[in-house]
């Protein structure tokens, strides 16, 4: 029995910390109350006209209209003050039932009482107070019905003794009528309480889903931001190695020029031209990469540094992936002989990292069994470019949808070289990652 009570209390949210927000009286409340009042007065007069009046109701017409109107007015505050409205509706039901039972039995007022009790369960913020108020209302109403049943049984005994009333069915007439009323009221009040409970639980579930969605969105935003920071920190480390290489070359060439300046001016000029070229390349790399970096701190996330990698290292990368359930082909298309080997250091590294991330995504999230890597380089002005394209023949693998952070890294790295990115499924099937870098910006 205690477990049943615990389940009932849990279902009604007695120990739940969540409180359903109470909206102010709004337009929909006014429309509902006005509609119920208008329909109630109309049906009241229709019944009066069709049945020739309320024969057993001594209350004047204005009192009947007032009872219907007051019932409709109660619906205005059903969400703002749910327990107060439920209590007033129960009082209205009792007074109208004693003074003018035929008016109280009208469908419009029955709807008012049902909605008021349902709203009391659905919108009450203090769940223990709700159980107390609703429990008192239900006990009072069934005590009233029981009182009528007791009077009905006594009247039936008097009829049996004095008039010998005939019994048509299995039950005496008056107790049968009261018993029928008892069953109807049990369904009536039980339905209102159950409906209110379902409404409250649905509202709580929606609020929790909205809270979870907001949390997931915030976490996704933080993950995206962290991915951007991590990628830019990795770019910064690559930049350090790229620029350090250029500065070292500048130092070597400058030292050589100093040593041969007097005895071999032509060699000195050649060395100084190399210094100028290296300095320009280093400055261009710094402007391009540092322009996209943000301040951040962090530790090295990988012990493997591949900042010297470029297009020439792609065969080794493809060989590592090929044969592990994925057949990978590599083609390097050069409009001019040796064009791929002459790519700037940072741009060659960007091509390498793009292929590395794209192949990793194919293995993790695709059903593909083959993929092709194509690198195209054209140094001819005015549209000199370097392009890398990775295409597979698979579909997204069920249950392995990624976070999109890998693609975000590809876009971030492409942005540092003014590259254009095209990532997405192909019309003919499979998936494509294509990035085109302008060589003018790199040289």
TrEMBL record:
<feature type="region of interest" description="Disordered">
    <location>
        <begin position="293"/>
        <end position="312"/>
    </location>
</feature>
<feature type="transmembrane region" description="Helical">
    <location>
        <begin position="107"/>
        <end position="124"/>
    </location>
</feature>
<feature type="transmembrane region" description="Helical">
    <location>
        <begin position="59"/>
        <end position="76"/>
    </location>
</feature>
<feature type="transmembrane region" description="Helical">
    <location>
        <begin position="83"/>
        <end position="101"/>
    </location>
</feature>
<dbReference type="Pfam" id="PF07730">
    <property type="entry name" value="HisKA_3"/>
</dbReference>
<keyword id="KW-0472">Membrane</keyword>
<dbReference type="InterPro" id="IPR036890">
    <property type="entry name" value="HATPase_C_sf"/>
</dbReference>
<dbReference type="Pfam" id="PF02518">
    <property type="entry name" value="HATPase_c"/>
</dbReference>
<keyword id="KW-0812">Transmembrane</keyword>
<feature type="transmembrane region" description="Helical">
    <location>
        <begin position="177"/>
        <end position="200"/>
    </location>
</feature>
<keyword id="KW-0808">Transferase</keyword>
<keyword id="KW-0547">Nucleotide-binding</keyword>
<feature type="domain" description="Histidine kinase/HSP90-like ATPase">
    <location>
        <begin position="350"/>
        <end position="440"/>
    </location>
</feature>
<feature type="domain" description="Signal transduction histidine kinase subgroup 3 dimerisation and phosphoacceptor">
    <location>
        <begin position="231"/>
        <end position="296"/>
    </location>
</feature>
<keyword id="KW-0418">Kinase</keyword>
<feature type="compositionally biased region" description="Low complexity">
    <location>
        <begin position="293"/>
        <end position="307"/>
    </location>
</feature>
<keyword id="KW-0902">Two-component regulatory system</keyword>
<keyword id="KW-1133">Transmembrane helix</keyword>
<dbReference type="InterPro" id="IPR050482">
    <property type="entry name" value="Sensor_HK_TwoCompSys"/>
</dbReference>
<feature type="transmembrane region" description="Helical">
    <location>
        <begin position="30"/>
        <end position="47"/>
    </location>
</feature>
<keyword id="KW-0597">Phosphoprotein</keyword>
<dbReference type="InterPro" id="IPR003594">
    <property type="entry name" value="HATPase_dom"/>
</dbReference>
<feature type="transmembrane region" description="Helical">
    <location>
        <begin position="131"/>
        <end position="151"/>
    </location>
</feature>
<keyword id="KW-0067">ATP-binding</keyword>
<protein>
    <recommendedName>
        <fullName>histidine kinase</fullName>
        <ecNumber>2.7.13.3</ecNumber>
    </recommendedName>
</protein>
<dbReference type="InterPro" id="IPR011712">
    <property type="entry name" value="Sig_transdc_His_kin_sub3_dim/P"/>
</dbReference>
<dbReference type="GO" id="GO:0016301">
    <property type="term" value="F:kinase activity"/>
</dbReference>
